[in-house]
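re the bet — no i am not wrong, look at it urself. input seq straight from the record:
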Amino acid sequence: MIKSCFSESILKRLFSCGVIACVTIENPLHAVPAARALLAGGIDIIELTLRTPKSIESLHRITTEVPEILTGVGTILTPQQVEESIAAGGHFGVAPGISERVVKTAQDKGFPFAPGIATPSELEHGLELGCREMKFFPAEPSGGVSFMKSIYAPYAHLGVQFLPLGGINIRNMSDYFQEKATLAVGGSWLVTPDLLRTENWSAITVSARAASALVKEIRHDTV
C-alpha cells in the first residue's frame, strides 16, 4: 500500500464531511461570508480555485478569518502556485491534471496534494510519483461512477482513493458514496457565481445543509 501524503486528521475530515465545496471567487469580499455560510450548513471543507486574479487574496482571507474551514486550493498548475498556496495558509492542493513539477514541489514542501486523473495511465503516473489520493476529473463527462469503479479495481490494493469532481450534484452524489474508492466528492453547485454575485448567503447554507445531511445519512455507520 502506498503511503498517503495527507495526514490522518485531514483524511478523516475529508471522509467525515464527504463534500468539498468547489468555489471560484472574483471578489475577495465574498470569500469570508461564503465560507461562513458553508460552515453554517455543515460543510467545513472547500476547494478554492486559482482561476481569478484575486484568488490568493481570497484564500488568505478565509484561512485567516475562518480557521474552522479546511481550505484546499484548486487549479494549482505551477510550482509557484504551490508556494503561494502554502504562504496563504492553504491546507492541501488539487489540480485538474498531473504535472510532475507541481507534484514534486508539493512533496518537497510537505504540502498534501492530489493530482487530477481520468484514465488508468494517468492513475499509474500519479502512483509512480507517490500519490495515493487523486482527483477524478471531470467525473461525469469521463464516465461517472461506473468508469471510476472500473479504473479503481486494479489499484484498490494500493490504497488509492478518489476525490471525484465534475458534473456532481445533490442528485447524483449518493451514487459516488456507494463506492469504496470515494474519499469525498467535490461540487460547485453549493456556491455558484450567481449566489456570490447576489450575496445570497442563506441559499448557500441551505444547499450545504442538504448535502451534509445526505452524507450523514449515507455514511451513518462511520461518520
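see?? Residues 201-218 form the longest helix (18 residues). told u. also Residues 8-217 form a domain with the TIM Barrel fold (CATH 3.20.20.70). so pay up
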